[in-house]
Request: fold
Amino acid sequence: MIKGGNVGLAALSEEAGSLMVSLSWSSASGDGDADVSVLLLGADGKVRGDADFYFYNNPSAADGSVQLLGKTPTANGSEDRVSIDLTAVPDDVESLVVAASQYGTGRFGQLDDLRVTVADRTGEALLGFSIADAGEESAFIFGELYRRAGEWKFRAVGQGYATGLVGLATDFGISVDEEEEPAPADEEEAGAGEPHPGTAVGAGAAEVPAPIGPVAAPAPVAEAPAATPAPSAAPSAVPAPSAVPAPPAVPAPSAVPAPSAGADPAPARRPSGPRTAKKKVTLPKVAKKSLAENDSWRQARLFPAPTLKSDRERETRATSVLLAVMAQVPEFGRRLTAAFGAPAGRMQTFTEVTLPNGDTPRRPDGVIRVERAGKLWTALVETKTNGNPLKSEQVQDYMDIAARRGYEVVITLSNDVALEGSPLVEVRTDGRRKHKVTLWHLSWAEVAHQAQLLIRHEGVGNAAHAWLLQELLHYLQHENSGCHGFQNMGPAWVPVRNGIDTDTLCQGDERAVAVVESWERLIRQVCLRLGGELGQKVLPVQRAKRGTDQASRRAALADRLCEEGRLSAELRIDTTPGILAIAADLRTGKLRTSIEVPAPEQGYPLSWAKRLVRQLAEAPADLHVETLVEGNRGPRGTLERLRPEPGDLLPKDGVAINGFRLSLFKGMGSTRGNAESGFIRSVDEAVDRFYASVVAHLTQAGGTERRPVRRTSASDAAEAAVMS
Reply:
């Protein structure tokens, strides 16, 4: 589409009632990022209330019409996805604005390949719109979904704001509360004025960039006149950003009894609106004291795992446990199924269902059904635990059964991690069938990740739901459950390591490509695990030339592995001042974790060095610190040597300092699995140690230190269970 163009969705697909809207971008440096937001507007072009503003602190609608699904990595950057169920949009909502914003000082001109893509329920892309003229804007409206003559249409907007998310929200009638509130005296006071029960509010004031002037908006494109008489076309619901309306007037309060004589009058407090400061919530550091007499006592669990003996038992138990919790905890069930096109509605789940298939009936491990407005959405579930692979012929049978019976989705669930361009199973689809069935994969690591986010950081509806999710997490993490995520680097791992040791591994070797794919799966799982623990977005950074497909990119990385004997990856973590890099040198058997910290814009080099050493007071003595300068390598040394003399980090010739690189080295596991001597465990331990002992201190010292905030009763119950 071109800027200002519009198109009816019904003409593009019969399955356009449920949409997946994806906003994507890339960055040459790998450190650019943005966050998607959606606003529901009435006939006047304004929100009906603050609850119509969906963003990172308010990610989903209670009716399921809008669900923010988070980011996924792409070949050149990342993609932020939104599930929109147009059939669930309230009748008094005339349009939905899809936008994105950058947090802090970021600008969209620093990003490349800005694009919005709209796909239908089956995952088929219907339209796309690229933005090529971004500059100093810190917020952008990508597109608008709106009703016209009973039909939903999409308009490509491409309109920017220099005032960020706050300016965009204010333009549509949102009253944003950006004043920092004092720390509450106790937990009962901390939740006053929270706009959304069940989630924790932001812990500090937002970083709002100063306005730099309005951004010119394109003239709205008028609709083509209908054949029958109709009222004059209304202008687009998207207002020009230069015309920012005054905040809505606060209604006069009702009569309140006067305070008793001698009492200090309570200060007036204006109603709180949404806060765009990102939430930063941590678990308490001290666990509640156990009532057990000694450490041999084991707490009773809802889902016991120690008695499981066979893989069949593990698969049956894991499927039943997961599907039962999905049906009982709405937030969790929606979180896992919205990405697959499921509507928000009444969910029921089933196990060991027998379905006819010629002379041999089939029994999928599970079935998920969601009812909404008299219509049923159905998914068949095929589960694997431990290292058991999915079988193509089995999945193919379920795809055929789903197509014949009018089901929508087949979901595979295993410890493996799906990669774009590298399917776990090969299936064929019959193009002659009108009914389309889509195949999706879910990793056990993703299941645990979503459960962690809900009970440790975002909150759920009540304490019972939090307890159920905690019991699910405990089950998944038990050594007998078989649901531990990616745990094997594959059969090519040992031959490739031997080939590198003997210098006999040649470029073009398919085994090297298999190792690269296994490495990417491991890194994706590291991101899921770390993101769940921190409650922050953690994404792998993939650097590739524009237009490079996944197969070509992995082949190039495999050739580099053959030449250099090294695997590398980069992770982007919210609130972290740099990219966390991981390098596995298969020749030396060493893992290197590192981060580059940019030099401050103000001050003197000696002050920078002293401040850095102070920030790293709790870091390991063997931390390697290197000064980054143009052209050559700068001064370097261990933290133990530099602590008494930070000035040793300064270049002798006075050359400009660009920043500092901090690195830790660790021995690499040799086996392909996740045992004590395994490579996978060594990577997990290296990342955990580096983040906890180095990166976390930089984050806190950099001005984003976390403060405790009030949690809901659900979060409190989950915390107590987690820490016990």
User: Anything to note?
Assistant: Residues 125 and 603 are 51 Å apart (CA to CA). The first strand starts at residue 6 and ends at 8. The chain is about 25% helix and 25% strand.
